[in-house]
Specification:
The complex is a heterodimer of chains A (about 425) and B (about 140). Chain A has about 425 residues and is an alpha/beta fold. Chain A is built from eleven helices and 20 strands. In chain A, helix 1 crosses helix 2 and helix 7 packs parallel to helix 9. Chain B has two domains: about 70 residues, VC0802-like (2-Layer Sandwich); about 70 residues, VC0802-like. Classes of the chains: A alpha/beta (about 425), B alpha+beta (about 140).
């Protein structure tokens, strides 16, 4: 279902809205956000130089580093008395990065997530169980707002206690599940352990997955675990920019629809900063054009994707971004080779003798890195030949895809840690000199 | 003629073998003989126990990758050359031995536990040669 008519505007109508909102935002930011005014002045720009959507490319970028330097509220365009809510990223790699909402921003947030949830199959009749941790994390709050706006009933079960989650799911008749892909998999395992076959004994028919990458291989596992006919979509967000609600997949499977009347996406060459043409792979840059409290202009997400502007079979005319192959934050460098954990995941999932869980361990050995992938056996055997064959297969696939020699460690089922929030697939034990 | 061996996959990690043994002890499963073969990363523990079905079930419940494997336990007289002649017959029958280990129980004969690729052929060869194998009842009685 298409939630808002704004998702089906003609490109000309949409561009008119974008232009008006961009110009308003740039004027306001220049006036109220000192660090950005300084950036514009350094580039010799005033709001008068920005008169069309094409002028967007002249504007300076904002990076995560800028937000850290002006921690906590340096990029806000409102005084603190007018804040309505503050959320934050977890700050695992440094200071947390807060994200601030005015009252109007909360309303926009509900609207944006309602669109995405509807695109993913949510309806007013749904019983929606949200298995994201409530708190500073934007994911839980955002999905709750959006699904409430859609008209669904909310079961805010939060993260953890899988058996209790399944009890709610079964007894309340949950039809829609919000979770990370890894936790959705975990829940299906626990369900089976309790003698419940998700497709038969539970009523879940829509999975709105997020906060972690959803690889194609994982999507297929998810179908095996939850049923062939279940709606499975992923969506994209970033706490600095609002949280969930920037873009999300529809059921046609052709990419993630961007809420373009609120966010202008661009793709740039990450080295030169030049804007790239439609369809080219580059870094996603987002400009918030209807955010009152924290209107970030040309924020560099660090994420690599492509944009496509052709109308979708679903009826939406908004541009689509390709599902990410990896978040920039997740990228690993091993002996000079760049790789994403999702690439390892695809390989692990392609070997039927292995379970879907894995852990990447990185160690330093002399002057080089040693990478080990720990995987769980999903098969039972009494033969070393079979075990060695499994190891050899995984190693060969890793070598082909990543060009690295990687150790493979077979483990018993259920030995690797399970996660209720974002899965931590990488243990980096290399000394950071 | 064949017997059920309990096979368990264990990672080479401190305490893993003890965990398996604890679980078997708790469920009163008695180990009659064992073989532990290992690589640097993991090992396969192969056990002849009085109650393999229970052993396998409780280990699976505890999350261990375990299974029952059909093996032969062949009685061998305490005479020089007896093992050699039995193996010769089996291999002449076109059967490959995957692994074997001694059954460490005090009886008048020595016994070996043997896993082969063609169990039925191996059984026939042994039967035709009049070589005795142990039965489940005999194992339970040990």
């Amino acid at each position: 279902m298409i939630f808002s008519k704004q998702e089906t505007l003609s490109r000309a109508e949409l561009r008119a809205i974008q232009k008006e909102r961009l110009l308003e935002t740039v004027g306001r930011v220049y006036e109220r956000v000192a660090p950005y005014r300084e950036k514009m002045q350094a580039a010799g720009l005033t709001p008068a130089d920005i008169t069309s959507l094409d002028d967007l490319k002249k504007l300076p970028f904002i990076t995560k580093q800028d937000l850290r330097e002006h921690y906590p509220f340096g990029f806000c365009a409102l005084p603190r008395e007018q804040f309505a809510r503050v959320h934050s990223s977890s700050g695992t790699t440094g200071k947390p990065t807060p994200t601030v909402f005015a009252k109007s921003d909360l309303d926009v947030w509900s609207e944006c997530v309602a669109r995405i949830a509807s695109a993913g199959g949510a309806t007013p009749e749904d019983m929606a169980q949200i298995c994201f941790g409530f708190g500073m994390f934007t994911g839980a709050e955002g999905l709750q707002r959006g699904l409430e706006r859609v008209g669904a009933a909310i079961v805010p079960s939060s993260a953890g206690n899988s058996e209790k989650q399944l009890l709610y799911m079964k007894d309340f008749g949950t039809t829609l599940l919000v979770a990370t892909p890894s936790y959705a998999m975990r829940l299906s395992e626990v369900a089976r352990g309790l003698g419940l076959e998700p497709a038969r004994d539970l009523t879940v028919r829509t999975l709105v997955l997020g906060s972690e990458l959803l690889t194609d291989a994982m999507r297929e596992e998810m179908r095996l675990a939850w049923g062939r006919d279940v709606n499975i979509t992923t969506n994209y967000g970033m706490s600095e920019l609002m949280g969930p609600g920037i873009s999300g997949e529809c059921l046609e499977g052709g990419g993630l629809h961007v809420n373009e009347d609120f966010f202008i996406p661009e793709i740039i060459d990450p080295k030169t900063g030049e804007v790239l043409p439609e369809g080219e792979l580059g870094e996603l840059v987002i400009t918030c054009i209807k955010r009152e409290a924290m209107p970030l202009v040309r924020y560099r997400t660090g994420d690599l994707t492509r944009l496509f502007y052709a109308p979708c079979r679903c009826g939406r005319t908004t541009c689509r971004m390709e599902n990410l192959q990896g978040r920039s934050d997740d990228m690993l460098k091993v002996n000079g080779v760049r790789l994403f954990p999702s690439q390892v995941e695809e390989i692990v999932l392609s070997v039927p003798e292995l379970g879907p869980h894995y852990e990447i361990v990185l160690e330093r050995e002399g002057y080089s890195d040693r990478m080990t992938v720990r995987v769980e056996l999903a098969t039972v055997t009494d033969s070393f030949r079979v075990l060695e064959e499994i190891e050899r297969t995984v190693k060969a696939k890793l070598k082909t895809v990543l060009g690295l020699s990687i150790r493979v460690k077979l483990e018993s089922p259920n030995t690797l840690e399970r996660f209720e929030g974002k899965a931590k697939r990488v243990k980096d034990l290399r000394k950071k000199d | 003629m064949t017997l059920k061996q309990l096979s368990v996959f264990i990672e080479n990690r401190k305490g893993r073998l003890a965990e398996v043994l604890n679980i078997l002890k708790e469920h009163n499963v008695n180990i009659l003989s064992m073989s532990l073969a290992d690589t640097t990363e993991y090992g396969l523990l192969r056990l002849i126990v009085n109650d393999p079905e229970t052993g396998c079930r409780v280990l699976l419940d505890a999350g261990f990758s375990s299974m029952l494997t059909d093996v032969l336990i062949i009685k061998i007289p305490h005479v020089a050359g007896s093992l050699q002649s039995i193996l010769a017959r089996i291999t002449e029958g076109g059967v490959n031995i995957e692994y074997m280990y001694g059954l460490s129980v005090e009886t008048s004969d020595a016994s070996i536990v043997m896993k082969t690729n063609e169990l039925e052929v191996a059984c026939r060869v042994l039967r035709e040669a009049g070589i005795a194998t142990m039965t489940t009842e005999e194992i339970r009685a040990l």
